Amino acid sequence: MDMQRIPAREGNYNLRNYDETRATFKWEDAHKYFSWDKTGKVNIAYEAIDRHAENPSTKDKVALLYSAPGREESLTFGEISAESNKFANVLRKYGVHKGDRIFLFMPRSPEFYISLFGILKTGAIAGPLFEAFMEQAVRDRLEDSEAKMLITTPDLLERVPQEELPTLEKIILVGNQEIESSKYIDFYNEMEAASSSFEIEWMDLEDGMLIHYTSGSTGKPKGVYHVHYAMIQHYVTGEWVLDLKEDDVYWCTADPGWVTGTSYGVFAPWLHGVTNVIRGGRFTPEDWYDTLEKHSVSVWYTAPTALRMLVSAGEDLVKTYDFSSLRHLLSVGEPLNPEVITWGLKAFDLRIHDTWWMTETGAQLIVNLPSEEVRPGSMGKPIPGIEATIVDNEGNEIPPNQMGNLAIRAGWPSMMRGVWNNPSKFESYFINGWYVSGDSAYRDEDGYFWFQGRLDDVINTSGERVGPFEVESKLIEHPAVAEAGVIGKPDPQRGEIIKAFITLNPGFVESSELLEDIRQFVKTELAAHAAPREIEVKDSIPKTRSGKIMRRLLKSWELGLPTGDMSTLEV
Ligand code: WT7
């Protein structure tokens, strides 16, 4: 079973002695990096941006290297500091205060990052939304969080059901348009008039910073709530796991609508004052290789799906580029196939370091460190300061090499502090002092963790987390669909694809046009990545006596597996 292990190379890594650090490290040791140690207060916007802008030796350093088709721009720490001050003034002018929820719904752009830090400087809680969300997804999130303001682009405005969102007071529009409503604020006009000095809102460590909505197996998406104190873990993992050094050029490919794109696309690099590459636009292997080469990227954090697509694009393509600056590669979001690690060794002459964490955990927890041996197929070991184990259903620890539920001792700095509006959901994550992840895994005798799958029905498609319930709910809104059950079907490239089983309402006849219409319906109302790639019409959908869709049975059908205990099946 055990693949060949890949030893660490000699190197000047920030964390060189894992065992010793693990034995001695305490999170309090990291307080000294932040103003909190002296003043008792923090703001992540100060620590990530303003601190470097105040320092004459880093003020003019490039913070953001932005490129997208048709736009290239770079901003220094001094510039982001001044621009986000302006934006904070705009928000204040329109009544934004500490604790308000202010959402961002726009593509990656310099304005996104300026707005994000402007929001944080006012003490408000930022809610980034993935730009591909359609109306229903946007509505669910703004409604649940009772968002007060939204920053978006004119193009995306039609997906914001304003009449149905009574708490939404203003919409700030980034882009040229005729302003027809008193509800709209023009980003550029306001920025021009705003002062570039702002009195930052000093926060307590446990004050709210961010809400990321994510999917579970039941119910609507959950608002995972994070606090400013999370920065300590962003900083420490930036040092140990990303191995960031002053002169690095760092690129994280994730969108800030997802947690990787904030914790590691924004905070970790900038807390370290490192130059951060942001690439907009769609993925193509050529485009990504160009980006790595053009900016001389040295540390690269990406996802298995993207890496698998690079593998498919072939080795000849790799050889046409110069990747001599690249020194450290990392991956997150889904299982990293050992074949991909093998390919990485050939293509880049580098190991790819898998990391495991979740929206709820706020930062990396189980990782492959540059100074440690990599065991392909394993997510690695818990970082110092983190206690990880495998528990059974009652929350009791189980011995090595046995599969169970991956659990983390609750209370690490970047752990979510709540599920917005849903305290019982939040509590349901914890048992016996453990945060229970819902991932099945085992650990070996040496403390390496091996991912096995999800224990619930949550789907991971191309590294994006999709709740089957959301898709099922949307499907049955289509006039033709009576019932729906949705599963993840294994797929070599995407990890899983979404497959829907449906029954049709009387009067509807199965046809490829109808199925395509149903697919498009989900795509245009929810999000492209949530639309089922396969739809199969059935006479009935299996349900338990209590009416729960038996997704596990659907999956067994799909995979041709034995169906197991069906005693709770209806009829
Ligand atoms: C789920 C969390 C925060 C990272 C981006 C995804 C899966 C995450 C790995 C990994 C295997 C992984 C898990 C986890 N996952 N990293 N290294 N190996 N699976 O965040 O959307 O909250 O999803 O992604 O199933 O529970 P997310």
- Per the principal axes of the C-alpha atoms, what is the gross shape? globular
What portion of residues belong to β-strands?
Answer: 15-25%
Spatial strand arrangement across the major sheet:
2-1-11-10-12-13-14-15-16
Distinct ligands, ions and cofactors found in the model: 5'-O-[(S)-butoxy(hydroxy)phosphoryl]adenosine
Oligomer: single chain
Q: How many alpha or pi helices?
A: 17
Q: Helix/strand-derived class?
A: alpha/beta
* Distance between the amino and carboxyl termini: 42 Å
Radius of gyration: 24 Å
Number of strands: 27
* Mean pLDDT across residues: 94
The major β-sheet equals: 9 strands, mixed
Poorly predicted runs are: none
The helix content is 25-40%
Keywords: Acetylation, ATP-binding, Ligase, Nucleotide-binding
Organism: Ornithinibacillus halotolerans
EC number: 6.2.1.1
Family: Belongs to the ATP-dependent AMP-binding enzyme family.
Write the layout of secondary structure elements.
Blueprint: H1 18-24, H2 36-39, H3 44-54, E1 62-68, E2 71-76, H4 77-93, E3 101-105, H5 110-121, E4 125-129, H6 135-145, E5 149-152, E6 170-173, E7 184-186, H7 187-193, E8 208-214, E9 222-227, H8 231-240, E10 249-252, H9 259-271, E11 275-279, H10 285-294, E12 299-302, H11 304-313, H12 315-319, E13 328-332, H13 338-347, E14 352-356, E15 366-367, E16 381-382, E17 388-391, E18 404-409, E19 418-419, H14 423-427, E20 430-431, E21 434-443, E22 449-454, E23 459-461, E24 464-466, H15 468-475, E25 481-491, E26 495-504, H16 512-525, E27 534-537, H17 551-559
Parallel strand pairs: 1-11, 3-4, 3-5, 5-6, 6-7, 10-11, 10-12, 12-13, 13-14, 26-27
Antiparallel strand pairs: 1-2, 8-9, 9-19, 14-15, 15-16, 17-18, 18-21, 20-21, 21-22, 23-24, 25-26
Family: Belongs to the ATP-dependent AMP-binding enzyme family.
Domain AMP-binding enzyme C-terminal: 470-548
Domain AMP-dependent synthetase/ligase: 57-420
